[in-house]
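Worked example 4.2. Below are the chains of a multi-component assembly; read each line carefully before continuing.
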Amino acid sequence: MQQMKWDTIAIVGVGLIGGSIGLALKQRRLARCVVGIGRRHSRLARARRLGAVDSTTIQLERGVADAELTVVCTPVEQIADFVCRAAKHCPPGALLTDAGSTKARIVSQLNGALSSGAVFVGSHPLAGSEKQGVAHARADLFDNSVCVLTPKRGTPQVAVARVRRFWEALGAGVVQMTPEAHDRALAFTSHLPHLLAAALAGSLPSKLFDLAATGFRDTTRVAAGDPDVWAGIFTHNRQATLVALQEFQRHLARYRSALERADAGRLRKLLIQAKQNRDALGR
Amino acid sequence: MQQMKWDTIAIVGVGLIGGSIGLALKQRRLARCVVGIGRRHSRLARARRLGAVDSTTIQLERGVADAELTVVCTPVEQIADFVCRAAKHCPPGALLTDAGSTKARIVSQLNGALSSGAVFVGSHPLAGSEKQGVAHARADLFDNSVCVLTPKRGTPQVAVARVRRFWEALGAGVVQMTPEAHDRALAFTSHLPHLLAAALAGSLPSKLFDLAATGFRDTTRVAAGDPDVWAGIFTHNRQATLVALQEFQRHLARYRSALERADAGRLRKLLIQAKQNRDALGR
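Applying the procedure described above to all two chains together yields the following structure tokens:
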């Protein structure tokens, strides 16, 4: 893997993901200058103190002025707008990418919107946590993670290759698919689990809280994620999430029917298949 | 908390839970002799090597002969039978308890079955993991955990108090409820999450395994549990599990409807309530 050295990289939104990108860039000496862009001075100051960024600004135009690469790490519903605005002010030929959990709507919102010679390549690093904020950022967040790239047909291969090497340099393995294929897949592997975890956590009567042990906590952990962020993700990807939910409910009906018929053999078979899948994923 | 010293304690089934009880008893010097009882010599030898038990036997009658307390840590469908057999061979006035994840059926199976003067008090330590076997046993497994006792009406208070102190000495906080109330509660806090995790893991197409990151892994972690053990639990507690499942599905329908109507405000409200519940549980 060829490591590259960037001069200036701008990060819009320096929370868990943006902060971790900054920390990784600095610790691996991949960029001379990392600029953090955000709305709140206090949060930006914290990112600077933690070493996630070298300089900060609340003015997007100034922050991206020298950035060869701008990474937009905001909630999904703001990404297209920030990319558009950043594209107008970054250097000619600069690259733009994001870290959004949905891709189809963002890519279509940007379709034809970048007239400045800047190139956008959609990214989704599959890393993160239910925790929020730069205080939880980690330089190794992307180690052994997967990052999905969703270039449009017609995106210059050299731009795709540079964004790919950017994520690889942070420790991620990169896969490439269409925005729509990404959204269908992530509906199943990320958005559906979040929906189920939230529905399970939300339906627990408070009198039973004391009896919720490790199993319940693991199963509902992601439900502690930011409701605004997740409402945005579900809104962006609601069609594919509904399809994944339907598929899940079909499968759940098999368990329900086995329970209703007290069919221990059938239950056991279902549980064996579930365990095989879960074991295949590793820890 | 008054700590007590036992002479001999027998553990039937020296896996994760039985092994952790043994390790905790030895490390805290709570019992002079811990006897491990099981079916396989190799597994018992491993428990002895790990220091979870002092001596081992595959003969239940011999193993419990001197045991003031016998703790049955087998899969739920075998518990009543082991308790009955142990009661016939343990010293007069000895105590028996278990670590089963269900209680109503076990307690009713034992109703009137113990004629020997031994007393059974049902227990369910809410500790454990998707991992199996004594190799994963830990002396601190019960630290800050909750253990539910489900004595029948008429069980001598002195026996209940001794079993309570036993679990407290291992680090657990003890709560007391009827076997039926236990099963209704655990259907919601443990058996339902397992069902959902298994259904989710089982419905994941293998081509998407690479895109299942932390969120999916957390949400489905318990699905790696032993299918035989869990088929037994579901069979014992199928009625209450079906009730919990129905309640969950009612709640899930709210999410589904908000998604179908693209009602981001409603989704956000549901996610906020879920986060409040999940945050209240702590890590």
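Take a moment to check your reading of the output against the notes. The two ends of chain A are 26 Å apart (CA to CA). The mean pLDDT of chain A is 95.
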